[in-house]
Amino acid sequence: MLASHKTKFTADSIEKKPGDEFKFACATYQLDSEGTDRHGDISILEYHEKSINVLSVLDVGGVLDLWWRDENQLFGACASGELRVVQTDKDCVLNKKGAAKLSDGILLAVDGCSDSVVTSDTLGSISSIEPDSLKIKTSINSAHGAQGWGAEVWGLALDRHDTNLVYSGGDDCLLKIHDLRTPHTVATSRYHTMGVCCISPDPISPYQIVSGSYDENVVHWDTRNFRQPLRTVSVGGGVWRIKRNHDNTHLLIAGMHSGFHVVDMEKFVVTQTYTGHESLAYGADWLSQGFVATCSFYDNLVSVWHSGV
Questions:
Q1: For residue 42, which of 76, 91, 1 has the smallest C-alpha distance?
Q2: What's the start-to-end Cα distance of the chain, in Å?
Q3: Which string of DSSP letters, residue by residue, matches 232-246?
Q4: Which of 56, 194, 233, 295 ranks highest by number of CB atoms within 10 Å?
Q5: In angstroms, what CA-CA distances link 146 with 17, 124, 174, 213?
Q6: How far apart are CA 48 and CA 43, in angstroms?
């Protein structure tokens, strides 16, 4: 560990700020002792000279996932069911810009591109949002779960080559492909044996994605054949997040109970494991020059360390 920082609430998500080498956003989400009120915030942090400096903190209630639309605009999937938009100024001070109530449940994930945002929730639904007006363009109800009930959609990602395509992973153990132009699921994989938590589409190669699950497996897919994966590697803990480095040569894995892991994409093996956190490994992202920022839940810990890449 090169540097560490303690958050006020339990930490669950980290996203590197575009255009900055060592600045990143961190989200927190925490229930009160009675389990009724939800608290949380978004902070902008910077790794500098072996320390983590707090540049700004904004109380927005519990936040479960983050996505940067550009270097100044940040979207948060909130426990209130709202999609929250915040803006940073030239000094990286956060300000509230807008919010839209999208769900009666908890928003679990957010992803997007410049002109489209997608979210998922605890009720099994997926929504496509216009990012400026925050109006719903398309909703897929019961994207996961059986008729009459919805399974949590933990994993969600927009395809990088065709933004009509959305990948989702649910508590029902299913990995799915959806086309936002149709109400029907395009393809379904039943390979994972436990809930699917995260999906990472390849920004360079079409039809290539990587999925992660509570079953502890990181799985490389060609989406044209969902019956048999290309490669798998186990990380010994539930796979909560997958992040690709800038060169698309390595994956950074948040492995919940097993810590954080670096996977070489060419050989598809774990090349480094980091166990400097004492709680659930949840949030992770690549910074610059092989450095990474990670966070864990119950110990409120943010760390920066080097991946060896």
A1: 76
A2: 15
A3: EEE-SS---EEEE-T
A4: 295
A5: 38, 9, 12, 20
A6: 16
For 70, residues 6+ apart whose C-beta sits below 8 A from its C-beta are 18, 114
Complete DSSP assignment for 179-202: ETTSSSEEEEE---SS-EEEEEE-
- Supply the DSSP symbol for 72: S
For 94, phi and psi rounded to 5 degrees? Answer: -85, 140
| pLDDT, mean of residues 211-230 | 97
**What whole-number distance in Å separates Cα of residue 15 and Cα of residue 182?**
31
| Token pair of 262 as six digits | 């670096």
Which tens digits make up the pLDDT trace of 167-215? 999 999 999 999 999 988 999 999 999 999 999 999 999 999 999 999 9
Q: Which positions ≥6 away from 18 have C-beta within 8 Å?
A: 68, 70, 71
Q: Which amino acid is at 121?
A: D
Looking at the DSSP assignment, which residues form a beta bridge with residue 272? 262
**DSSP letter at 123?**
T
Closest Cα to residue 165, out of 185, 146, 151, 145? 185
Rounded Cα–Cα distance for residues 259 and 296 (Å): 9
Residue 49 tokens, joined: 């000279």
Beta bridge partners of 48: 51
Q: What is the band of 230 on the pLDDT scale with cuts at 50, 70, 90?
A: very high
Whose tokens are 């009724």? That residue is 36
